[in-house]
Amino acid sequence: MDVKGKAAVVTGGASGLGAATARALAERGAKVAIFDLQTEKGEAVAKEIGGVFCEVNVTSDESVDAGFAKAREAHGQESVLVCCAGTGNAMKTASRSKEDGSIKHFALEAFNWLIQINLVGTFRCVAKSAAGMLTLDPGEDGARGAIVMTASVAAEDGQIGQAAYSASKGGVVGMTLPIARDLMNEGIRVNTILPGIFDTPLMQGAPQQVKDALAASVPFPKRLGKPEEYARLALAMVENDYFNGEDVRLDGAIRMAPR
């Protein structure tokens, strides 16, 4: 797919992986809409790339519908969707306090909250975007659009305390091929990236010694991933018309230890 002149939507596009992807798409000539809850940052990135910012909560049907309506009014029906919106938390499934021996378990509200954002929120945006793409006239080989979702290496080697996070990201991996098959006769491709340890705003707040230790754990190159590297792979998935139904790790060959 040549994205020049095409409309694209990037969820979580105000910072990190999403912002890098929004910039990369705009550099290729795409008309980009950013979905995010970070209004100030999102508007700044949208202004920088000549795009449009839509304040969107991916856990809300009404919010997502309003975001797509605004984006399509500005740019027309999107042919590209990249889902980067997501978050994380960490808590053992059940644990014993070292101080007083009291026992607690992972709060189900917190588990559900993460699933709603990372998994259900991703599917909500994918389903609504795909329905819109079905209205487009088919191009070469019947192509109408391309979708990229974001999982994590935690989908395959989650660490201690990551039961909810790994479940949410494993769900994204698990639905990649079925969605690609659902949409195969409509010319819409679906792929997923599993990033490793990336230098995102969340990571930038960590102490330097923590970041150095994480970087040293990567086989090669021994550093954190750059958001621009994620963006390049997302673009490859969009632009290569034979790239479909795949889950690809982008992690410097790391395999996460238990902790």
UniProtKB/TrEMBL annotation:
<comment type="similarity">
    <text>Belongs to the short-chain dehydrogenases/reductases (SDR) family.</text>
</comment>
<dbReference type="InterPro" id="IPR036291">
    <property type="entry name" value="NAD(P)-bd_dom_sf"/>
</dbReference>
<dbReference type="GO" id="GO:0016491">
    <property type="term" value="F:oxidoreductase activity"/>
</dbReference>
<dbReference type="Pfam" id="PF00106">
    <property type="entry name" value="adh_short"/>
</dbReference>
<protein>
    <submittedName>
        <fullName>SDR family oxidoreductase</fullName>
    </submittedName>
</protein>
<dbReference type="InterPro" id="IPR020904">
    <property type="entry name" value="Sc_DH/Rdtase_CS"/>
</dbReference>
<keyword id="KW-0560">Oxidoreductase</keyword>
<dbReference type="InterPro" id="IPR002347">
    <property type="entry name" value="SDR_fam"/>
</dbReference>
